[in-house]
Structures are given as C-alpha cells and as structure tokens.
C-alpha cells in the first residue's frame, strides 16, 4: 500500500492510481480559492484538505505526518508545482527542485532564466501598460506580437495582435483574465514567430534524463492559441529534433532539475530553428499522456507516479506506433444535433456536449467539447482514418 499526496484535484491522476494500485491511499490538497468542479469517483481511500497559504499548508502537512508516511507528492497542474515541490522537500521524497519549481510556474521568470543561457526564445518585454505594448509593436516594424498572463495555463488569456488598432481591445481582454487570477501589474509581450509547433516531453530521474519524446501540435484557426490536436511521435526534421533536445538538456542542467516530468512547447521556424514558447514542470495535459502510453506501449502516467515514489521505472526509448488525438471543431451557438455519430464507433472518444447546450467560441482549452484518438502502426493509414472521421462527424449548432 502506498500513500500519495496530490497537490490539486485531478480525476485523471486519481483514476490512474486507483486502477494501478487499488489499495493505495490518496490525500488531496487544493487551494481554497481554486475553482474546481472535479468529480473523483474511485474506490480508494481518499482524503481532501483545503489550504489558503503556506502557513495553512504547513499545518496540514504537520498533522498528516503524525500518522502517514508519504511515498510521493504529485503536482497535478501548473499552479501546484511550487507547493508540490515545497511539500516534497519537507517530506524528503523526490521533487523537481527549487529553481525549476519557480521558473516553470512563471513565464516571465522562465524568459529571464533562458536569456542568461542563450536558450532560443521569442524577443519579449514585461508590459505594465498598453503603452509598452504599442512601443514594442512599433519597434518590431509592426510585425505580429503575442500578449499573455504570466502564470496561467491552457492558453487562457493568450492573444495575438496583428495590427496596432487591435492593441487596446486585446490588452483589455487579456488584462481582465489576468486580473481574475490576481495578476494585476502587467502582462508578458512577445514577438510572434510563425512556424510548426511541437511539444517536448522529458522525464528526469534523480538528475538523469531517462525519457524524451516529441509531440506534433495542431491549433484551431480562430485567432486564439488553443490546441486542436496532438500526434505522437511527431514527425520532425533530425536537425530540429537534435536542437530541441540540446536546449532541453541545457535547461535541465542549468535549472538543476532533480526528479520531474517536463512539458515544453517549441516553435520550429521556416529555417528549421527551434524557439522555446514555454515549459511546465508537470506531466503533459490534454491526452498527450494517453498518446505516449499508446505509442510507447506503457502506462506513462503510472510510471510517472512511480518515478515520484523514487522507484526508478525504466521508460522505453523507442515508439512502436503512431497515435493522434483531435478535438472536435464547431461554431459557437446552441447544439442542434450531431452529423454521423456512428463514425466515432470503434475509436476512443469523448463528447462533452448535448443537444440544447450553448457552446462558446473556443478561446481557451476549457471551451473544447470532445475528442477522438486513433492509433496505427502505419502513419499514412492513421492519417486517412482521422481525416475520414473528421470529415463525417460534426457538432451542429445554431446561433438562434
């Protein structure tokens, strides 16, 4: 029997632990001000605690350690990495390390850190007002720029500015979202670099890199930065892959990463050079975990849990098949029906809307309403199957 301490509520992680070790006990700590409608329905012994600050977190940990010996502390989301590292340090279990916990939680801190070590990334500034954005935009000869909050995930609040006339409106949009999360002193502004988008997943075990993967990313063509799908392993040039791995290795070394999963996003420019967009110090989101598990024939999430227990699981180095996930696209409006739902049969899929539901524009990841996963040993066969399904199945909506 193992005791897991989860920082944040993740039904996906809790379910994985339950299925892999039904006798394990799960303790979940989450912040009081977090908005979370997560329903965790598992048979394991599970305990919930809320905290508002480090002092309250300390009190809960001090209470629990009187009767519980924890095997692992798991950061469930981006905003729980620092607290997970703090708890793991107190409990003497594997952790990411203080530098990684800090810079992977704050995009501006990551930019400043990477600048010191010449890790390629977009040019950037921290803007305290829209005036700063206008100056940055003008200095870049009016090429596109991106503005974003520093600590949010899932593309929330991230917008692209293509014309000077858009700055005021998009600054207000991004600033309003950042303010909801207590970011009120400014926004991160970056040059927009066009190119193919990939993510890179790393596993570091006791300062040793033991797993690397490249994932191809797809985006909705709607002006936002929301991912519409992923493919594992991603098809990428050898030059780009070698460069991504080189700079990821450097980041791991300079940030003194101890034990962690890293999920970094990269853009490959037209001349095949990589630029780091961001990096998170936790397992990848969406269903990338599922795709890695399928393509490398392992239970990636459970092995990650074992990693954090200090059990040094052996990760495969070569994938055996291709897997791809696509989220469904739709027009904003009220759901009136579904075209060819039979096309989804036989494939892993999820549909999270019903007739009569109102669907908003897909401006962040939470607005997506379902996905399909297809895998095949042959890349071209996979591509044909996915294109066929997506050409048949549609979520029909009406604006009335």
Automatic annotation (TrEMBL):
Keyword set, alphabetical order: ATP-binding, Ligase, Nucleotide-binding, Oxidoreductase
Gene that this polypeptide is encoded by: purD_1
Taxonomic path: Bacteria, Bacillati, Actinomycetota, Actinomycetes, Bifidobacteriales
Record's keyword annotation contains ATP-binding: yes
InterPro entries assigned: ATP-dep_AA_Ligase (IPR052032), ATP-grasp (IPR011761)
Keyword presence, ATP-binding: yes
A molecular function (GO) term: metal ion binding
EC number: 6.3.4.13
Pfam families named in the record: ATP-grasp_4
Superkingdom of source: Bacteria
Enzyme class, spelled out: ligase
Name listed for the protein in its UniProt record: ATP-grasp domain-containing protein
Organism: Bifidobacterium longum subsp. infantis
Domain ATP-grasp, chain residue ranges per copy: 111-309
